[in-house]
Design a protein that fits this description.
Arp2/3 complex 21 kDa subunit ARPC3; about 200 residues; about 75% helix; 7 helices
């Protein structure tokens, strides 16, 4: 399995679009439900690790790479599956490794973030689709919606939070775009090939 995975990773230049199978259909249209559940569980675990242990977390800002797990799930299995990965990862991460008070709005945002990645990237990971996904997630969900949840949770003034949140978004937009292009595309190609070889 690992040999096929790394072999596919090295051959990503000849691979088809991430998220599509040999016949051009999205990966989620084929494969067994058990295999799908296993992959989504792995993405959920990856999301938790990246968010809880490999991110810079303060009460009003988070800079990290948990989005990679959501983008991968969205590319391979679509918006609903990626949204569920985000929601499950947020709830389990809070239960296992709490970093502050739980608020359901954060879970909703995690679901919507995954769903947006799925909506944009499920049928192809082009530069335009990557820009669209990152723009919606950062400039709408993170800057305005997530800021509202932070304001409600901690009682901080919404307008006063926006400058700090905007700074985070301006940092994360290029980070996410470069990560998706340099890491996400080859990794998605490798996983797609592994997925097809194990059908």
């Amino acid at each position: 399995m690992f040999k096929r995975f790394f072999g596919a990773l090295m051959e990503n230049g000849n691979a088809r679009e991430p998220g599509t199978g040999e016949d051009g259909r999205p990966l989620a249209s084929g494969g067994s439900p058990v295999r799908t559940i296993v992959w989504l569980a792995l993405f959920t675990a990856l999301f938790i690790v990246l968010e809880r242990f490999l991110s810079i977390n303060v009460w009003n800002m988070r800079i990290g790479f948990a989005f990679i797990a959501l983008a991968m799930a969205g590319m391979l299995y679509g918006p609903l599956a990626a949204g569920l990965v985000g929601a499950a990862g947020d709830i389990l991460g809070m239960l296992l490794f709490p970093t502050g008070p739980y608020f359901p709005g954060f879970t909703l945002n995690a679901f919507l973030t995954g769903a947006v990645f799925g909506l944009f990237l499920y049928k192809g990971m082009t530069v335009k689709r990557m820009i669209g996904a990152v723009a919606v997630n950062q400039l709408i969900l993170s800057l305005f919606v997530q800021t509202l949840w932070i304001s409600m949770t901690y009682g901080a003034p919404y307008i006063g939070l926006l400058p700090v949140r905007l700074t985070q978004c301006l940092v994360m937009i290029p980070v996410q775009l470069m990560s998706l292009y340099l890491i996400g595309r080859p990794l998605a190609n490798a996983m797609r090939r592994l997925h097809m070889n194990t059908l």
